Amino acid sequence: MRIRFLIHLGPSQCGIGLLPAAFTPACYSREMETTRRWTTWAVIAGCWTVFAFAYSSHLYVYHNLLGEPTTWQLQVAEAFANFGVWAALTPVILLLARRFPLRAGNWLAFAGVHLAAALVVSLVQVVVHTVLDLGFIHGQFNM
């Protein structure tokens, strides 16, 4: 029989130690769940950050090839105005995917929900990106 052990390092209401997984207090599972959630969101934010930096390098090269004056900072700001909005919308998208899963028995019923949500999320992304890009980065809006 194989016994799994849970190693918990650091102070908590449960203490510090090495306990068999079968005898693990409930607070360990709550702490592990919280850690897992934070790790998941950190990975998601990290991925969107990588995408934004990759896209900003594309924008920088593109504008330079066209002979348009630009700076690295401007292109990073433009990329983050785009991908930052997607990062902020990711929890909504994942929540909808979890709440309305497309499975063999219900895909037709929930396809309409996904289509409507995709349209709304896309509209929100375009509007917020446009306001950030034109209003705050390029100063097009006089408020």
Structure overview:
With 143 residues, the chain is mainly alpha-helical. It has a domain at 41-137. The protein is 69% helix and 6% strand. It is built from 3 helices and 2 strands; from the N terminus they run ββααα. It has a two-stranded antiparallel ribbon. A hairpin with an 8-residue loop joins strand 1 (5-8) and strand 2. Helix 1 crosses helix 2 and helix 2 (72-99) runs antiparallel to helix 3. It is extended and about 55 Å long. The N and C termini lie far apart (70 Å). Mean pLDDT is 84; it is low at 4-13 and 15-19.
Name some characteristics of this structure.
about 140 residues, two-stranded antiparallel ribbon, mainly alpha, 2 strands
Write the layout of secondary structure elements.
Layout: E1 5-8, E2 17-20, H1 26-65, H2 72-99, H3 107-137
Overall outline? extended
Helix content: 55-70%
Note the main sheet: 2 strands, antiparallel
Count every beta strand, where a strand is a DSSP E run of 2 or more residues: 2
- Average pLDDT, rounded to a whole number, is 84
Structural classification: mainly alpha
Number of helices: 3
Provide the low-confidence segments as ranges: 4-13, 15-19
In short:
The chain has 3 helices and 2 strands, in the order E-E-H-H-H. The chain is mainly α and 143 residues long. The longest helix is centred in the N-terminal third of the chain and has 40 residues, at 26-65.
